[in-house]
Amino acid sequence: MKIPLYLFTLFFFWCCVSKNDRQAMTDISGMREVVFDDKNTINIDSVIANYRFVRLDSTDNFPIGELWQTLITDDHIILVDKLHSKSVFIFDKTGKNKAIIHRQGRGPQEYISLFHVTLTPDRQKIAIVDDLGKKVVFFDLAGNFIESKKISTTFLTLEYASADKAVGATYRENPAEAVSPGSKHTDNLILFMDRNFNPESSAIQNRYLAISSTKPTLKKFGNDIQINPYFCDTIYQATPDGQLTGKYHLNMTSINGACNLPPDITQESLEKMYKTNSFFYGDYADGKDFALFNISTPPREIIAPYLYSKTTGKTYRLTLPPRNNEDFFTKIFLNGSCACYENLFMAVIPAYRIILGSSPAWKERHPEVMDGLTENSNPVLVFYELREPGNNKNNY
After folding, report:
1. Closest CA to 185 of 203, 209, 171
2. How many Å apart are CA 338 and CA 294, to the nearest integer?
3. H helices present in the chain, as ranges
4. Dist CA 247 CA 271 (whole Å)
């Protein structure tokens, strides 16, 4: 059964790239098969080996609102609030605030819109994609301006594939609106660029012009750049030279998953499918030994988290511990986690949710979280170290 699925995936991707870019078609022989089955459940308590909280310093006049991005390095935690404070916050691993980048404006050292944030390959510079200002603005980890570079393309996301290459995902429903007039890449949503963000090649057409949103997912985990076309059951890995290799094939047959939909599907038909089918919207985190995939399930589109073990090749539907579990409130936030570093998966807990949602016993058990915490405090981070199911050793 796997071979036909793989061949169909190959055919689907062939349809997603333009005629001039089919040289990007590459090897899928090493692609991992991730099989989702809601009957293969496991309690979330049995996969958490350890966890720790990180209280973030106060950031004074720039309180952290809703977090859109989290970047983690060996020494730093970088948080992006692009709507409320429109700032980038740089902390060390203990939560001590090291710098705040708040440069909204139209000047040469400022950004109009904080659309996407990434790190340069040496992880020493922060690159802010200013979609409205049509530029990328660079800062060091102390928050000092370094330089800016013009871009001719609007991006949903942009990541470095190497010191000299970058990959970006456009976000317009009509890609021709997002790329400079006359560009040969106007049909495609993924652009492979040089270090100055000039497009060199492209891939993945917008197949779904009749529906409201068809944004591809482009993420970076470690040194891997991964791409998931909209409604596609395959996650690809991009190389610096513009090649795509199969990373994961998501087999959602057992959960009635909808994927690789016909290009003429309408918004009305799609709305009906949401009530009967499971969907993957590119919401996942890919760690060293584990990956977490969040699947939208019918009929109420509730997110179901699945844990994939790269060691055993097994996939588990995570279920919550009983509510009387002494650390129920801690463990539930692994559900929906989409940030990771090596084998640590991270969740963000707003301070008000801790104050209003946790039990008196939980608060007493975690003074490292509760001491001085108010509803106006910055969010609290929790890092989870995972273990293989069946290994019953807890380190907490």
Report:
1. 203
2. 9
3. 2-16, 267-274, 328-331, 351-357, 360-365, 367-370
4. 29
| Rounded Cα–Cα distance for residues 74 and 206 (Å) | 37
- Report all structural domains of the chain as residue ranges with CATH numbers, in order of start: 2-386 (2.120.10.30)
Token code pair at residue 160:
């470095």
Looking only at the bridges linking them, the beta strands covering 116-119 and 125-130 are antiparallel
**Strand order in 188-194's β-sheet?**
157-160, 165-169, 188-194, 199-205
Q: What type of residue is 140? A: D
Is the peptide bond between 321 and the residue preceding it cis, with omega within 30 degrees of 0?
no
Residue 16 exposure: Cα atoms within 13 Å on the Cβ side: 28
Distance CA 345, CA 365 (A): 22
Residue 129 has what DSSP assignment? E
How far apart (Å, rounded) are the C-alpha atoms in residues 317 and 39?
8
Q: At 337, list the tokens.
A: 């986690």
**Would you give the distance in Å from CA 21 to the centre of its chain?**
26
Query: CA separation (Å) from 54 to 66, 93, 112, 382?
Result: 17, 8, 31, 6
Q: What is the pLDDT of residues 362-391, one digit of tens each?
A: 999 999 999 999 999 999 999 999 999 877
Strand pairing partners for 248? 32, 235
pTM of the shown model: 0.89
Q: What does the alpha-carbon distance between residue 353 and residue 355 come to, in Å, rounded to a whole number? A: 5
Given this model, what pLDDT does residue 262 score?
92
Over residues 119-138, the pLDDT tens digits come to 999 999 999 999 999 999 99
Cα–Cα dist 51/155, whole Å: 35
d(CA 386, CA 82): 30
DSSP per residue over 193-227, as a string? EETT--EEEEEEE---TTSS--PPEEEEETTEEEE
Q: At residue 287, what is the residue type?
A: G
Return the half-sphere exposure (C-beta side, CA atoms, 13 A cut-off) of residue 131: 17
**Closest C-alpha to 219, from 268, 270, 267, 287:** 287
User: Could you tell me which of 53, 52, 93, 59 has the C-alpha nearest to residue 378?
Assistant: 59
